Amino acid sequence: MATTTSVRPLPTAAGFRNPDFPNHMGPHDARIIIYGYTPSFVLCILAIVLFALNTIVHAFQLVHYKVWFFAPLTLACVLETIGYVFRSLSSKNDPYHIIWFVIQYFMIVVAPVFISASIYVSINRLIAWASSVGYEVDKRGWLRPKAILWGFVSADVVTSVMQIAGAALVGSSESNGKDPATGNNILLAGLALQTSSFSAFLILLVILRVSLAKDLTINSVVRTKDMFILALLVASLLVYLRTVFRLAETSQGLFEYISIHEVFFGALEFAPIVLAVWILAIWHPGRWLPERKETVPPVEQEGASPAPKAEG
User: Fold this and answer.
1) What is the pLDDT of residue 150?
2) For a designed S-S bond to 67, which of 93, 163, 251, 286 qualifies (C-beta 3.0 to 4.6 A apart)?
């Protein structure tokens, strides 16, 4: 007796149809499943639980520490939760539904932009803190906090709009039986630019840490922030890993090996992002970058005599 499976890819030109989910061709249904597979309901539920919990944790810390600049990260967790709710609808009810696909794609693609924005703002706060303890920002022409923040945020916004527009065109083309190449190319360009932008940010973050380490006047105080800086770096690398995965998936093409195997989505989209937001919850900037100015212990010059004590 023949058996059926939940994932049975057809030739690239034909797309994917799940025999366990007959296509009723409703008003919002595509002729194929645009995902390239039927999404895993277990993965969706796991994601909803983890991101919802993280929303609560970040919202609490946001209010407790009054670090309003970190609000975008709470919003990112909300978007991820909503995205996986719609993905679960595709999994259980109708994987052909275009609107559910577009909404989940929009939410899951846009959420990392807000995570990145929170990381960019945290770096700005780190620079401001370093400046308050003696780090001479003005002498370093490459270090312009406002340019760093708005430059990278603007790049993320533009590239995300390109990705969403490309995905929408892919969905529309597949629904109408047209060639999705144009939409896929727009999506690919957005991902390529986003990857380049985030690569530049990672390089900047490493240069900043090296520069702080070389400044002996504040080195002892900077070391107290090493765990926070490391957490920011790891979270950034996880977001970067997710972006590289999306670039590889799109460059390979629609309904090719990466895009039709959900294991790649789970390991390289879901896992890096959920780890990143939990890392930023544990090493929260509200605890590591206080508003008050910290003092730097005086550094005695070699051979200098200690200051005489005042006679009482």
Assistant:
1) 87
2) 286
